[in-house]
Amino acid sequence: MSPLAKLILAHAKSLPEGGLLSPKEFLHLGSRAAIDQTLTRLSREGQILRIARGLYALPIQGKYGERPPSIESIVSAFAKNGEIIVANGAQEANSLGLTTQVPTREIYLSSGPTRVLHLGKRAVEIQHASYWQLILGNEPSGMAIRALSWLGPEQASLRIVKLKKKLSKTQWSKLNANRKLMPSWMAQLIAEASHLA
């Protein structure tokens, strides 16, 4: 194993689960071509996993063998780099009890670029989303915004009262306070529900 490969692996092992490796962080160790070749070789040998173009992570050694890092740990790593990543509206609607439909595809919304992450045999889609879908992040009020968006105007109007009962007064107030950033139909729906007892 080359000295460059040893240094990259040592750095990878110092990161928590889901810690991401990028060629750019190793430019002080050699040329970009040499770093790319080393990362590709380590990936082919199974010592690191290629998560997406230009992103790698260390596989996790569990008691049942090797596995890719969890999606939660990858999302956390992106968040540390300033990117917002949240569950999509279908997942949020299910979590809030507004639908019994369980999403079959893993899709997350992001402030960053659209891409597909490969975690072993799982493909997780990260889709760039509008700012209004990301406001309030993973708070229940943020989940509500994405759930309403996924439901659409007609279905959302049928479930808004149930949603209001699910959210605490504080979370409903946050949702109401941010309605100016949302699409008109959603803002109106929330305003009307706010006046209901």
Summarize this structure briefly:
With 197 residues, the protein is an alpha+beta fold. The chain is 47% helix and 16% strand. It has helices spanning 3-14, 32-44, 71-80, 89-95, 131-134, 140-166, 169-177, 184-194, and strands at 49-52, 55-57, 60-62, 65-67, 85-87, 107-110, 115-119, 122-128.
Rg over CA atoms, rounded to whole Å, is 21 Å
Order of helices and strands: HHEEEEHEHEEEHHHH
N- to C-terminal distance: 69 Å
The spatial strand order of the largest sheet comes to 5-6-8-7
Number of domains: 2
Q: What average pLDDT do the residues reach?
A: 91
* Count of distinct strands: 8
The general outline is elongated
The level of helicity is 40-55%
> For the report, how would you describe the main beta sheet?
4 strands, mixed
**SS content category:** alpha+beta
Number of DSSP helical runs: 8
Strand content: 15-25%
| Unreliable parts | none
